[in-house]
Design goal:
The protein has helices at about 5-15, 20-25, 35-55, 60-70, 75-95, 95-115, 120-135, 140-155, 160-180, 185-200, 205-225, 225-240, 245-265, 265-285, 290-305, 310-325, 330-345, 350-365, 370-385, 390-405, 410-430, 430-445, 450-470, 470-490, 495-515, 515-535, 540-555, 560-575, 580-595, 600-620, 625-635, 640-650, 655-660, 665-670, 675-680. The protein has about 675 residues and is mainly alpha-helical.
């Protein structure tokens, strides 16, 4: 097709998009046909310049000047490129795709005139890339990539700045392709192209650094490699240094640091992210993603630290995001999850109920949103734990299964499903539920192999499974997992105390099986490390006291019981209504009295034990009656011992007869006629 016919064809197609008045030639055009070729060429360049300026000023009359420029000199590819570039820039600024489609047509004409014009291939690729983003179409992205590839083949002798721009566009096209495909190979090609582009320039633009950092963060999220997270953060740092107040860079850095925190649970990354979010809030407070991302970090930070103030602040930020966009499902889901966790942590039923109502209303509006189904799963889990009702566990499982029906590759869905089954199994002591939790944790682990929260949950599950059926394989697996977690996440300061305490518990149980005091001493060292990090950790004094009692039972050293008594005192100060503390405290006094050689001191210790056990009973501990029976047996008061054995039987807290006969603390009553009569009065055991 000749250039003239091609031009007419393009003009006919453009009349579908643009008003005829904008495309009609300037008044002077009637005399242009008499101009010499050289004058036509100069005039065409002037018209192109005027049209470009007018279009920059948003005067659509500019289109007639651009059309006249190529009419005067239709064989000049640079005029077609100039016209296409002007339309591209206007279309990019206004996000009007009709200008971008027109630009593509003009780039095509320029290349048909001269196929070796690298700049035409490059800018055509840029135009198609933008079209792909605006139209959300991978087709245009693929076409853009072909244009960049063609430019690369022509770029052997081009200057470094041109090559940097070329590989930048090529990298972006592959990054966009990855967003559609999710394939690591596409992301790897993008990263290689970004690296090549950076090698051609010593002073990289902030926008380039931002897009390069985005690709690195995507690779980090895909592979869970710390190096990729750190590289992304470094690139965003460089972008911000080059341009103070660069909002995209600050937001990108905040998001990268947030992900680094979730990856490592290192408090320093969370603090740096907060600084970035704060800066953006002063520059562009109307951005929804600012408040949402900030709320997400605060929410996760609050959960890890079990911090009520952080969770409250996260809810406030969700409200800021919601005020800007009340149709954003992720904002609703985030608010619901945080509100639910806060209600569970602070023992506030009103917050749990509020979260429940919110998620039900949201799912009526958006029934196919994965994040909302996960939020409902979280709400039902917290209600199950709050009410101790298995029906809520079932509802939680059903909600997460709905989320997985939307996307079975979502790692958070598998993680939450496993967590629900773990809590349900612990509540019901159902081996089937333990096995399912293990299965779902493995699915989550395959999708995100390096996640401290997931690793800790798996280690805890193995500890619970050992407690359930005393299979040593689970204890060994738990010990190995805790050891690995503490090595690989040395800066996870907030959860580290809890990890150390659980690790200590596993070591303590191993020592109990092997009957080796060295394991108890190691467990005590781990408890001390946990205490040094968080002296207010739940039940930490109780756990350490129990370990000291076990070590005392093994070594017959009174000093361990004496240390334990002080720890029970601290535990009772923290949780005065915990019946377990008072019962164990009473047992510790009995142990200490049992090894005391001074009779008045022994009687005083037994009296202390009685007071603590009675307090446990008044708080509702079912084993208090049996403990008092043992105490009165040691005090050689068989009638009172039998009285409390009868009470224990009535409270359904009596051990099996075999255990009664073998309990050394009941030696003083088992041979009495009172005991024989008591045993004879018991109903026969069920077969």
């Amino acid at each position: 097709m000749s250039t003239v016919n091609r031009t007419r064809s393009v003009r006919r197609s453009l009349t579908r998009f643009f008003s005829q008045k904008w495309l009609s030639p300037p008044k002077e055009s009637a005399t242009w046909q008499y101009l010499s070729p050289s004058k036509k060429k100069r005039l065409a360049e002037e018209l192109l310049g005027k049209g470009t300026v007018f279009l920059f000023q948003k005067k659509l009359r500019a289109l007639s000047f651009l059309e006249s420029a190529t009419d005067l000199d239709p064989e000049n590819p640079h005029l077609w490129i100039g016209k296409a570039r002007a339309l591209f820039e206007y279309g990019a600024e206004t996000e009007q795709v009709k200008f971008l489609f027109a630009a593509c047509r003009y780039f095509k004409i320029a290349i048909e005139i001269n196929k070796n014009l690298l700049i035409a291939w490059l800018e055509w690729g840029d135009t198609l890339s933008l079209l792909g983003r605006l139209q959300e179409s991978v087709h245009f992205i693929s076409e853009a990539r072909e244009k960049y590839q063609q430019a690369i083949e022509l770029s052997t002798e081009e200057p470094a700045p041109v090559l940097a721009d070329l590989y930048w566009g090529y990298a972006l096209s592959w990054l966009e392709t990855y967003f559609y495909s999710g394939e690591a190979v596409d992301l790897n090609v993008a990263l290689d192209a970004f690296h090549t582009a950076s090698s051609y320039s010593s002073c990289l633009e902030p926008e380039f650094l931002h897009s390069y950092a985005t690709a690195c963060l995507e690779m980090a999220l895909l592979t869970n490699q710390t190096a990729s997270y750190l590289k992304a953060a470094d690139l965003w740092d460089k972008a911000i240094l080059q341009r103070s107040g660069y909002v995209e860079g600050l937001l990108g850095l905040a998001e990268g640091l947030s992900q680094l925190y979730l990856h490592t649970l290192d408090e320093s990354f969370a603090k740096k992210a907060y600084v970035c979010f704060q800066k953006v809030s002063t520059l562009e407070p109307s951005r929804v993603e600012l408040w949402l991302s900030w709320a997400q970090l605060l929410g996760e930070h609050g959960k890890v630290n079990r911090s009520i103030p952080l969770l409250k602040e996260a809810i406030e930020l969700c409200s800021r995001a919601y005020a800007l966009d009340n149709k954003h499902p992720l904002t609703l889901a985030q608010d619901i999850e945080i509100r639910s966790y806060l209600g569970f942590l602070s023992d506030r039923f009103d917050l749990l109920q509020e979260a429940h109502l919110k998620v039900q209303l949201a799912l009526q509006e958006v029934p196919d949103d994965l994040s909302l189904w996960l939020a409902q799963g979280v709400v039902f889990l917290h209600r199950a734990l709050y009410h101790e009702d298995p029906q809520f566990f079932e509802e939680a499982i059903s909600s997460v299964q709905n989320a997985l029906s939307i996307d079975r590759t979502d790692d958070e869905s598998w993680h939450l499903l496993a967590k629900i089954h773990q809590e349900y199994a612990f509540f019901s002591q159902d081996e089937t539920l333990f096995r399912r939790a293990d299965k779902f944790y493995n699915k989550a682990k395959n999708l995100k192999p390096a996640c401290p929260r997931l690793a800790a949950d798996i280690a805890h599950l193995n500890l619970l499974r050992f407690e359930h059926d005393e299979n040593l394989l689970y204890l060994e697996a738990s010990l190995q997992k805790w050891d690995s977690i503490l090595i690989h996440y040395p800066n996870a300061s907030a959860p580290r105390a809890e990890w150390l305490a659980l690790y200590a518990q596993a070591v303590e149980w191993q020592g109990d099986i092997i009957e080796d005091p060295l394991y108890f001493e190691r467990a005590l060292m781990l408890y001390d490390q946990a205490l040094s990090i968080n002296p207010h950790l739940s039940n930490i004094h109780l756990r350490k006291a129990g370990c000291l009692v076990s070590l005392g039972n093994l070594t017959y050293a009174l000093v361990h019981y004496q240390k334990a008594l002080y720890l029970y005192h601290l535990a009772a100060l923290q949780q005065p209504d915990d019946e377990v503390i008072w019962l164990d405290w009473g047992f510790c006094y009995i142990h200490l009295a049992h090894y005391s050689l001074h009779l008045p001191e022994m009687e005083s210790l037994y009296l202390e034990a009685k007071g603590k056990i009675c307090r446990a009973g008044s708080l509702g501990h079912p084993q208090a009656y049996y403990a008092l029976a043992c105490l009165y047996s040691l005090l050689e008061s068989p009638s009172k011992a039998i009285f409390f054995l009868q009470k224990a039987h009535q409270a359904q807290a009596l051990p099996p007869i075999e255990d009664l006969l073998e309990d050394p603390w009941l030696e003083n009553v088992v041979d009495t006629s009172l005991f024989s009569t008591f045993i004879a009065s018991l109903p026969p055991p069920k077969s």
